[in-house]
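Why do we care about 3D structure at all? Because function follows from shape, and shape follows, mostly, from sequence. That is the central idea of this module. The next example makes it concrete: a single protein chain, its amino acid sequence, and then its structure expressed as tokens.
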Amino acid sequence: MPGPLLRGAGLLGLLWALAAGAAFAQEDSPPAAPAARVSSVPWLARGYRRATPHSTIDGMVQRTQAPAGDAAPPAPNAGNMPEANLEDLAAPRAEKDEEPTATEEKAEEAEPAAAETTLLMKFLGMEDSPVKIYGWLENSYTGNANGTPRNGFNFGVNPNDLANRWMGNQYYLIVENPLEQNDKINFGFRVDNLFGNDWQFNHMHGFADNAWGLNKFPGYDLAQVYAEVHLPWLTKGGVDVRGGRFYTTLGYEVVPAIGRPLLSVPYMFNYGQPFTHWGVLTTIHVNDRINWVNGLVNGYDRWVDTSYKWNYLGGWTWTSKNGKANFAQSYIWGPNQYPHFLPANTQIVLPGATLTPYLAGLRNINYGSNNRISFTNVFTYKWSDKLTQVIENDDSFENNIPGFGVGGTPSNEGWYSFGNWFLYSFNDKLTGVWRSEVFRDNGGARTGFSDNFYEMTLGAIYKPCSWLWIRPEIRYDWAQFTHPYNDGTRNSQLTIGGDLIILF
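And the structure:
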């Protein structure tokens, strides 16, 4: 489908969603509590890239590609994490890490408290401490119905990309002191530690680039590390200021396993969006229903480096008066190639980065003009106590990407996507999930293939107890014009997998 038609279809879908939300979220609708915002449930996600476009070094990784390693067995215990409910999973990424406003807190007090697992906090004797320590262990297995590809990968399926293998995806530990949304100045911090195979899924260029073996369980990523302050200024809700490395506000799905509804993530998240930023972010709580976000960051997924130019990160979120409808728009603009072309021994090349062996290490004289701009729109509507729908539309463009044009010349590229999620709560223990998506990669700058990618996934979230999640899924991927699956031999792929998460 041509790019303009795809963007038009996405826009029409978004307009339909907004119209439906306006029709069903009238002021005289029965009141409902706003979706819970749990600061201890992190937001965000991205993925690695399977094939390098154009200039390539054989065996070079696009977010993970090398002989697969053995996954470690799960750790033996579990314990303190507020359990994410349907509302948490349905919230846009920009809403998932916000403290509730005073109005929302009152509404939540009238509802039963969410189930919590507090084993680690109890074990440490820190039940009453303002500093929280909690996390989870995630292990998964994904089978490929086409057999095991020679390279060992399920193309397009991330982070569970290793075909017919167990993976120790996330052994995740959080230490935080969350902000208090009140009329006093107060300070907070957060440190997210990610151990396991997903370290390379969430990798930031410049931090331990070659420290860990690819596609093996041992590995570490400092997923988030930031300090923040709440200032009761400008508006009744005040202003929050955050500085450090933090998850992006773009899109719906996220990196942390318990912040997304399925084991696998869509193309739009894996290939189209950033995962993290380094910089400063402000959130102005305009009123109980509107937040305005502004920030300066050093680009997509990169560690501190004074040679990087700043990007503008912004957006806003709106929640209807009855709490059923939510809309979030986020955008980022700025240079996102590198001041110097990547060295030839770079293990992980993030989507969209130029890898040209004959220019390795040389200065990129056009770095300042390699501007990338991305917009994401996420609309959520709660049709009933059981059924929630999420719709996302993304549009991205980049100027003068080195090496992507004819004969290695610079080229302008774009990528666009439209996705839909249905989450149905059968009961307190079981939620069904259906995701469908189309992702257009115009020139192959994101996936390595100029094509339209389609994906449909059916899964479930089963919680037999508060500290245990089981998430089976069956996923079908297909490409319209090329054959990216199974070592470039097929245009479709069926995978069946699942993960087990222990919260502590």
